[in-house]
């Protein structure tokens, strides 16, 4: 990251203990439950090359099983309302109203629901930029106007953001890629200028926060593709009707469609109507602590038969195999190895 840019807006002065207690309170308020099955702890990883830490002393936060867990158990359960997602950004009127009309027009276009990119071949999607700008807004409010943040609906999400790592892993390569992609598009420059003007800051102070938010999204996101979950999360927003056309937006079926002898069914067209083709980035507390492994033992699921509450469908972290007490819970991030190692800059923390 260029040296002229100031990262002081990212500093959190509270102790780790205070941050952890605030995060736990956030989870309790939003009904994130583990039922004692797992905890956030530290696991060994290879240290980044630019540190002097001994390999056996380098620790990274992760999810650890508190007891033996059987296959197909829900380890973490939460409602949609506990997550950070573009719907929360749309519904935050103070944030949305400070963006220029041309930025609102682009971010509110239905194409954003279908993973449109801010520029051709860019890693950044419009829905991810929207979420990053919203997270940046909350961080800047924390620094510049804490009372207003406390009174704002959804403002307590700052307790979740504050708990995200500031010095774990190696995101220098990813940050460099993101910085380059943020330079050219007018929408990025305009949104950054709007945030700087609103908080009376320089753009050099705002830009690192946007890059940090994007790093957190890319390293911690759940690519949410469950139709009912997305429809609930994005209700009353410009993207509310994006998934109404099931045939046009459905994801391909995981298994081949049944033969004609088997009769017509939900999968007879070769698509899964419960899932959408283009997932949207969600940040799910506790679940986002899962580290990557090719030998995953958990996965994120949205059960179709789980009773939806007033807080929306349930998002679950479910075991794929038996997990022993003390074992780390890991999932496969889904990207190709060269994406994990080169684009994401995670080559130092995969082992």
Characteristics:
351 residues, alpha+beta, Beta-clip-like, 2 domains, four-stranded mixed beta sheet, three-stranded antiparallel beta sheet, 10 strands, 36% helix, 16% strand, disordered C terminus, SET_dom_sf, SET_dom, SET domain-containing protein
Describe the structure.
α5 crosses α10 (203-220) and α9 (186-199) packs across α10 (203-220). The chain has helices at 16-29, 86-91, 93-98, 101-107, 126-144, 146-151, 158-163, 172-183, 186-199, 203-220, 227-233, 246-249, 337-343, and strands spanning 38-44, 59-65, 74-79, 222-226, 250-252, 271-282, 291-292, 298-301, 314-319, 328-331. It is globular and about 50 Å long. It is α+β, with helices and mostly antiparallel strands and 351 residues long. The longest helix is centred in the middle third of the chain and has 19 residues, at 126-144.
Concise description?
This is SET domain-containing protein. With 351 residues, the protein is α+β, with helices and mostly antiparallel strands. Helix content is 36%, strand content 16%.
What is the topology?
Blueprint (H helix, E strand, L loop, with lengths): L15 H14 L8 E7 L14 E7 L8 E6 L6 H6 L1 H6 L2 H7 L18 H19 L1 H6 L6 H6 L8 H12 L2 H14 L3 H18 L1 E5 H7 L12 H4 E3 L18 E12 L8 E2 L5 E4 L12 E6 L8 E4 L5 H7 L8
Parallel strand pairs: 7-10
Antiparallel strand pairs: 1-2, 2-10, 3-9, 4-6, 5-6, 8-9
Helix pairs in contact: 5-9, 5-10, 8-10, 9-10
């Amino acid at each position: 990251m260029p040296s002229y840019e100031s990262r002081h807006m990212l500093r959190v002065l509270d102790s780790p203990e205070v941050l952890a207690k605030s995060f736990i309170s956030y989870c309790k308020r939003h009904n994130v439950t583990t039922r004692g099955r797992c905890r956030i702890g530290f696991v060994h990883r290879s240290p980044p090359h630019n540190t002097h830490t001994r390999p056996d002393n380098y620790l990274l936060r992760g999810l650890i099983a508190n007891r033996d867990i059987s296959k197909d158990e829900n380890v973490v359960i939460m409602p949609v309302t506990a997550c950070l997602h573009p719907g929360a950004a749309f519904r935050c009127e103070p944030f949305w109203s400070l963006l220029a009309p041309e930025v609102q027009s682009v971010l509110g276009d239905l194409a954003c629901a279908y993973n449109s990119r801010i520029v051709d071949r860019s890693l950044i999607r419009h829905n991810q930029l929207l979420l990053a700008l919203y997270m940046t807004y909350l961080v800047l409010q924390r620094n510049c106007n804490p009372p207003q943040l406390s009174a704002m609906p959804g403002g307590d999400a700052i307790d979740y953001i504050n708990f995200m790592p500031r010095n774990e892993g190696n995101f220098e390569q990813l940050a460099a890629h993101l910085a380059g992609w943020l330079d050219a598009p007018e929408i990025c420059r305009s949104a950054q200028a709007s945030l700087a003007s609103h908080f009376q800051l320089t753009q050099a102070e705002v830009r690192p926060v946007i890059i940090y938010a994007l790093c957190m999204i890319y390293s911690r996101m759940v690519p949410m593709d469950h139709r009912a979950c997305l429809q609930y999360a994005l209700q009353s927003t410009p993207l509310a009707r994006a998934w109404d056309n099931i045939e046009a937006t459905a994801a391909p079926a995981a298994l081949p469609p049944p033969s004609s002898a088997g009769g017509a069914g939900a999968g007879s067209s070769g698509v899964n109507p419960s899932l959408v083709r283009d997932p949207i980035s969600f940040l799910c507390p506790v679940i986002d602590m899962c580290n990557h492994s090719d030998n995953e033992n958990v996965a994120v699921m949205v059960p179709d038969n789980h009773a939806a509450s007033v807080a929306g469908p349930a998002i679950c972290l479910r075991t794929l195999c038996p997990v022993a007490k003390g074992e780390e819970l890991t999932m496969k991030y889904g990207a190709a190895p060269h994406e994990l190692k080169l684009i994401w800059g995670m080559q130092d923390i995969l082992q």
